[in-house]
Design brief:
15% helix; 1 helix; 164 residues; five-stranded antiparallel beta sheet; disordered N terminus; single chain
Length: 164
């Protein structure tokens, strides 16, 4: 009786520990993940509303830079043009155009979603060399015919170290 009671008291702790180990394994190469709310009535993202992210790179190497959008199903485009600007630790700025895909050829959302809200992630710069230091990334949309772009809830930046 005493033995079975002690096992049952330890099971919740073991379950939490196992869940933690599995959840941390999937993110081991992630060095930065940040989402910024659009914070506008009706989730309208203006072209002038540039989202800024500071990323501290502690180890030089190759990284995948991804953009994530949390958006409503009501965005009327299959693709939207995003501008990703990055500034290196020594102050050099470069602009990249990203043709961000929201829907597939059958007009179905490509991200994962619940109800009318979808999270869509796309690699913007693959296997990109970053040196040690602090980088500044900025994301804005460049869809003048849809200014403001709606419904966009959040704009995110993800930096993953490329595994060798």
């Amino acid at each position: 009786m005493k033995f079975s009671k002690s096992i049952f008291s330890v099971l919740p702790v073991l379950a939490i520990l196992v869940a933690f180990l599995f959840s941390s394994c999937g993110e081991s190469n992630n060095i930065h993940r940040e989402h910024i709310d659009v914070n506008a009535v009706g989730f309208k993202w203006n072209m002038s509303d540039e989202k800024t992210y500071k990323v501290n790179v502690e180890e030089a190497g190759n990284y995948d830079i991804s953009i994530e959008l949390r958006h409503g199903i009501g965005v009327p485009y299959k693709n939207v043009l995003l501008i990703l600007t990055y500034e290196t630790p020594d102050g050099q700025a470069t602009e990249e155009k990203v043709d961000f895909t929201l829907r597939d050829e059958n007009n179905q959302p490509v991200g994962s979603g619940v109800g009318d809200t979808f999270d869509t992630r796309q690699v913007a710069m693959s296997n990109f060399k970053l040196e040690k230091g602090t980088y500044t990334f900025k994301i804005r949309h460049a869809v003048p015919q849809a200014d403001p772009l709606s419904p966009i809830l959040e704009v995110g930046l993800v930096v993953d170290k490329v595994k060798k």
